[in-house]
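Quick illustration, no need to memorize.
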Amino acid sequence: MLLTNICLVHRHRGSLPQRRARLYEECIDVLLEHWRESKKLMVGVSALQGRQVLQPAALWLHQEEGRTRATADELLPVIEPALREIQWVGGDARKFLEIIRDESGLLTGWDQEHYGFMHLGFQEYLAAREIRSRFQQEMNETGQSNMLKELAQHFGESRWQEVALLLLALEDPPLFVPYMREVVHQPAFAKNADLVEMCLDDAIRPSGQPFVELLKAKPGKDQNLWERQLLALRIAERLDEKALESVMDRLKNHPDDRIKQWIEQRFKEALQKVIRPEPSKYELVLIKGGTFMMGSNERDSEKPVHEVTVPDFYMGRNPVTNEEYGRFIEATGYQEPKYWGDRNYNQPQQPVVGINWHDAKGFAKWAGLQLPSEAQWEYACRAGTTTRYYTGDLEGDLDRAGWFSENSGKKLHPVGEKEPNAFGLYDMHGSVWEWCEDHWHDNYDKAPGDGSAWVDRDGGTSRVVRGGSWFSDAEYCRTASRYWDDPDFRIYFIRVPSCPPSRLAW
């Protein structure tokens, strides 16, 4: 039924809205008005009237775990005040329920006694609208409201997740700032970074203000506050870097070492030679060339250990994100990656996944860059180290550097959350496997020593991937570890690693 409704929206307007909140609104319009008009029904409920009356019913239903339907007798006292407010003259409250059921299908009669929305999404959308309406009313009458505080107390609960996301997508006025002001004070805020990313993605007008305000709070000895401030720091940097400058000095002396290290790292990065070439605006860091020992004696494919001299080149500070890859799609009309519509993998600051080697080459060509050679990749990852990971030899050292099977929680994380290497590069270990330019060879026998890509002009198909992933064991995330995949292969753990030609001068 919902799919039929979506098709009707598409037929009526010629396309579908990009945002879910707008889609639900237009579905309701179709159900309450356009469908009735097409059937030439004289008695009915307008979309405006329907929303105003059904909003309190939706919120009332949603306030009890698992409640998606109720009897007419239970719903009557909930909707009667709204019917009086709109001065509806089509009959009593019971008649209203019958009209909605019989003429629109928005509210479905599950049996002779019970009513419920045709789809949980409509209940969630109308509940979000009711929360906004009550918030505005309370603010107008008293200058304060508890509605958003009550919703924020449910942050991280799956039952309220979609309600909150839809609320943030509503306009007139947007409620991102007042809602997130409440959320950042909830212990669940720091435990649900992925949900915070969804909030940023769905919000009609996100702002760094609530996060900067949290960073101004005295840290004291409250370690939960420190966790929340660490997440707020990462978000504020992305949303309002100028506002963040106002708290940088006080954060230098923060009792949480991770926050102090974050500040120190940002000062180091400010001194690096960095470029953000058009049209991608992808941040690249100058990697000064040098000589290093490539490979290891741990696996035959990593032998022999051999000397390689790499000229200066630039390397992406982070994996290419969905946000950055999205610019490529928008500019070129290139096909969307596999899993592009999956919320588990499509958040703006997550590394792009579901791309094959040819997709990676397509992005690189558009951006005026190229895939790194395998030698460039390992040199950039090592950053002068000779250990298994750039943070040390132990699995505990890897925990500081990247997301892998033991610490990822079996999910893809945003870029830049772990400790960078000495070159200022993030997520070189774990997170997602990374395509290189090179064809796969079973070992390094006769490998080039000048840092160039080892490409077979007369054959070869498989391409090298490096770095491991968020579901890989620590062994596969080592600096020297290497693997291969078919260039047509797409799955949810390969990103686009990008650097311009190693000999290009800036």
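The first strand starts at residue 69 and ends at 71.
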